[in-house]
Amino acid sequence: MVFIDTHCHLDASEFDANRASVIAEATANNVQIMVIPAVHSSNFELVSQIAQQNPSCVHALGIHPMYVNQSSTEDLQVLTKLIESQIQTEHPPVAIGEIGLDFFVEGFDKAKQEFFFVEQLKLAKQFELPVILHVRKSIDDILKHLRQHRVTGGIAHAFNGSLQQAEQFIELGFKLGFGGALTYSRALKIRELVCTLPLEAIVLETDAPDIPPAWLEKSEKNSPKQVVKIAEEIALLRRIPCSQVAEITTKNSMQILPKMAKLFTRPQVLH
Predict the structure, then answer these.
(1) How far apart are CA 54 and CA 9, in angstroms?
(2) Are 38 and 66 in contact (CB under 8 A)?
(3) What is the sign of the dihedral through the CA atoms of 162, 163, 165 and 170?
(4) pLDDT (tens digit, 9 = 90+) per residue, 38-51?
């Protein structure tokens, strides 16, 4: 069985001391690919570097909605130039991300968030890249913008919306990312979604070091290797073999991130 972690922040300072061993542990546990999305222009270089130095890692470039207040239009210019410089290389960005909207935290600037989101959707269209979306408390607004600015699909990361909202994302060519949140027995809505949605709509993620799964102690750090147990949890909930979850979610990830698929040979990925 082979697994893909479609969302992990391996550039985070929490991994500075042992990043190489965290990646090695993940690959030893059959997590063959880890997708590292950027969040701000200050970490574009690091996520690019990690992907270049580690054959099991790929990266995405974008400005996270919670970093918009620290960003300017110059950062969008930096983003554009960096994508241009990397897109034809051996280590291209596989998506624009992590981008989106976040209306959870008080004091957010909705207009500025929406401006940065739309500008980055335009970049995704320009470079024919999918998007990795942050959708916290903002799903309907995000869907509205996606209808106005049609991109080549992507992933709605840490999805926790309704079945109707999920179906709208699927209609727009998106996959839905599920991770540690579904491992909590109290997360009834997410667990029901994971059982109801077609498996072909689901991709796996950890959001490491954030959103730790239920089984980790407070002293333990979330990491990409946990994606295997997340897959096992989905298998238990759906009453299907974990091998089926692994195979189909891997295919889903490859389908939605085609530049990633080109970097990895099919026989290695699916067997």
Answers:
(1) 14
(2) no
(3) positive
(4) 999 999 999 999 99
Could you tell me the end-to-end alpha-carbon distance of the chain, in angstroms, rounded to an integer?
6
Q: What's residue 270's pLDDT?
A: 42
Would the pTM count as exceeding 0.85?
A: yes
From edge to edge, which strands make up the β-sheet containing 131-134? 96-100, 131-134, 154-157, 174-178, 202-204
Cα radius of gyration (the chain)? 17
Buried b (16+ CB within 10 A) or exposed e, 181-202: bbbeeebeebbebbeebebebb
Torsion angles phi and psi, residue 174, rounded to 5: -105, 155
Structural tokens at position 196: 């109801």
- CATH homologous superfamily of 3-264 equals Metal-dependent hydrolases (3.20.20.140)
The residue written with tokens 């926790």 in the block is 160
